[in-house]
Structure formats: structure tokens, C-alpha cells
Amino acid sequence: xxxxxxxxxxxxxxxxxxxxxxxxxxxxxxxxxxxxxxxxxxxxxxxxxxxxxxxxxxxxxxxxxxxxxxxxxxxxxxxxxxxxxxxxxxxxxxxxxxxxxxxxxxxxxxxxxxxxxxxxxxxxxxxxxxxxxxxxxxxxxxxxxxxxxxxxxxxxxxxxxxxxxxxxxxxxxxxxxxxxxxxxxxxxxxxxxxxxxxxxxxxxxxxxxxxxxxxxxxxxxxxxxxxxxx
Length: 230
Description:
By secondary structure, this protein is of the alpha+beta class. It folds into two domains: 2-65, no CATH class; 69-228, Aminopeptidase (3-Layer(aba) Sandwich), CATH 3.40.630. The protein is 24% helix and 33% strand. The protein has helices at residues 36-43, 79-87, 102-116, 122-130, 176-190, and strands at residues 10-15, 23-30, 47-50, 53-57, 66-71, 91-97, 136-143, 146-155, 159-167, 195-201, 217-220, 226-228. The strands form two sheets. The protein has an eight-stranded mixed sheet with strand order 6-7-8-9-10-5-11-12, with helices on both faces. It has a four-stranded antiparallel sheet with strand order 1-2-4-3. The longest helix is centred in the middle third of the chain and has 15 residues, at 102-116.
């Protein structure tokens, strides 16, 4: 499939992003334009993207990073998820194609510093979240006129792919990460998309293990097929 685009990648080794005790092996390539149907197809081969960079983890003797997707058409929020929706009834959401603005960059900077102890500059932000080889929307979350969150979502033929979400840490009590995924699932249904692609589910990483709480969902198994997550 990638041969159609005459793409040549390379293998990269380094420290695992999710475990300090492991080394990673990743297949990587860059492309500035990709048909959305091809990206949707290679997601089913374990690929994800960061800006123009596409990657697939091929770590030896490790299957911790498991692609997961939610059946948006059959999804029903749990009792606790419904509480999050009620808690955020005052939040206003806008949606537009991905673009740079200073307000969004400042929110991302604040989020990275306070939640990840990481300082990001404008180039980091643009390369990670503004540059996109596929159609991408930004969902902006406001309380009155105050921006409290931004979610990035790739628009694919039969699914949405959740790229990233950043929020104002002063509003952590709202559980905006949960709220944003519930709203992305709503958007899937509105756009008549079957799946919300959530990237990797990692059971022993608390930042990645929450994704199986949105059901029904499926995980990508070793033979390349999708399997119901029970």
C-alpha cells in the first residue's frame, strides 16, 4: 500500500516513550500529503502519525502498544461519563480546520509545562499538531470566552482519529480528557463515521490504559485483525 506513494522509511532505535526500562524499535517515514483512505488503512497495520511523521512500533519481545478503536455508533456512555457530560454543560465547542493561532499555542505550552514538566516552543507545536498530511480539525472548548481545551482530530473516510488533546490545568476538575473523547464520539455519529481511533492502549501505563473504558471497542491483534475488547 505504501508502495503506491513511493514511500521509503527507516528503522529508529531509542528509549521507549512509555517505559524507562525498555528500548524501542520503530519504523518511520515522512510524507506531507497522504490520501486519507490510505492512512485509515495503515492505522489497521499499527501506524500512527505525529505531524508529517508516520511511525509503527516494532519492538522486539514486546506487544504493549496495542491500537484500539471505539465503535462510535454503538457506544453508550457509562454512569460516570454521563456525570462528566453534566459537569461540562456550560462548555461551548467550536470546530474548524487545523491552523495556527497564538491563543492555542499558549494553552498547549501551559499544558505541557504543568502536566508533563516539558517546555515546548512554537516550532515544536507546529511540527507536532499544526502540520498535517490528512484533513484535520481542531475542536476548541470554551467557558464563556476563555479557551480551556483543544482537541485535534483527523477526518478519515470511515473513522475519526483522535490525535491529541490539551487543556488548561486550572480546569482539571472538569475531567476534560474524558469530556473531549465523549464529544469526539458524538462527532463521529454526527458525521456518520463508524470508528473513533484512539491510538495505543497500554495496560501498564496509567496515561494510556484508560482507553478501554469506552465500549464497545476493539484492539488490533498480532495477526492484523481487530478483536472485540471484553
